[in-house]
Amino acid sequence: MDLLSDSISASSSRGQQQSLPRTTDTSSGHAGPSNEMIDNKPAHLIRLEDLNNELQLKKTELSQLASDHDHVLRTNHTMLKDNQDLAARISQLENDLGATQQQNNSIKHELQACKDDLFRMQPSTEIPDSVVAKAYDELHVHISSWLEGEISSFETNYRKRHQGAPPDLFDHRNQPSVVQIMTDYPTAGGEYIVRCFIQILLHKEIFADNILLLGLDERETTLLQRVEQSMRNAKPPREPGSIQSWRSDTMTALARTNHFQKKHLTYAIRLGDTMFDAVTGYFPVLKKTEGSLQRFYDRVISPAMDLATMIQTSPTHYEFSPSIGTISPFLTRNLAYHQVSAARFIDIGTGKTLKADSPLQEDERGDIGKEILLLAPALYRHNQGQASILLVKEIVLVKLHKPLGRRRVATSHQAV
Question: Could you read off the pLDDT of 237-290 as tens digits, one per residue?
């Protein structure tokens, strides 16, 4: 295009020189074109000159655009390289972050373990198992002695005021299983039914697993349960033993406050009044007086509350089994001689506790009788991740196939 424009320009110049007559410049002494000749330049030549000027301008602009394009390419290349470097750096940082988080989690676990160890090393309020077991055994004795005392007191007072035999002490309340026991054993059967019923009430109202501490209201119980749940959901979660220790310390501190002790006493009195009314359903001759209610509270409610507080404030987890508050206490299992030591079995006919050397008579299948009523569940110490330890055997009422005879002479397999 440059050659074409140059050729056009040269041709134009030669044409002008050939077509225009020469004149003499009088002022300068040189010959040149006149103004008339310049003014008469053909229009197409002027247009060509204008186009040539525009072309040169476009060439300049194009050159500048090419330079800008090269600069953009170089900048883009630099940015791509920077992005690649940045992506590699981000990837490295992510890897470093993952490793740091793993290390942080490991440190948290170690720190939590140290906290748990320090927590467990603090002075413990744990009560020996023997004390808990003794209190549970004594509770059975208290219930029996209270019932025997009330029966004796009623019969004595009745004879002072009336002639003849006293009325029936107990009511079967039209329950078939109770009817059968009371029919076969009118007096003893009724006593055992009342004992069983009292145990059911105690395990529902005092020893239930969902009771954190007797006397706490629903709001306080919910708050403590939320705290324990947050400890289980923590990252890392607290160990069950640490949560149990925290509960023990918290419950122990609450139990010592004057505010709680007042609530505890109010709860115990109200519970005693309610349970007394329930017991009279099976024991209708028991009349509600200030004295009888106080005796029931002192002999049954108070020892049960003390045992419950002992268990609920302990860092050790205790459990009663089977759950007499949720299953039927009436049994129909056969009892074999070799099972006598598995529980505390009481003969309904004599009231005696069966032992390995008791004069028991077996039938042709090796059975000595039939279990008929669960009087009290067993007490276990629950060890996390390990087998539970039996502290107090369950108490079961049995009906022997044959009455107790003479005391057996120990055989070789019994001696072993």
Answer: 888 878 888 888 888 888 888 988 999 999 999 999 999 999 999 999 999 999
Q: State yes or no: cis peptide before 322, omega within 30 of 0.
A: yes
Place of tokens 């079995």: 345
DSSP 8-class letter at 300: I
For residue 165, give the H/E element and its range: none
Q: Please state, in angstroms and rounded to a whole number, the distance separating the CA atoms of residues 286 and 173.
A: 15
Would strands 395-400 and 344-347 be described as parallel, antiparallel, or unpaired?
A: parallel
* Cα–Cα distances in angstroms (integers) from residue 166 to residues 160, 212, 248, in the given order: 11, 44, 50
* 402 pLDDT higher than 50: yes
Sheet with 367-376, edge to edge strand ranges: 334-336, 367-376, 395-400, 344-347
Overall pTM surpassing 0.70 (yes/no):
no
> For residue 51, what are the contacts with CB-CB under 8 A and spacing of at least 6?
none
Q: What is the arithmetic mean of pLDDT over 121-135?
A: 79
Q: From CA 71, how far away is CA 92, in angstroms rounded? A: 31
* Angle, CA of 15, 19 and 20, to the nearest 5°: 115
pLDDT class for 81, splitting at 50, 70, 90?
confident
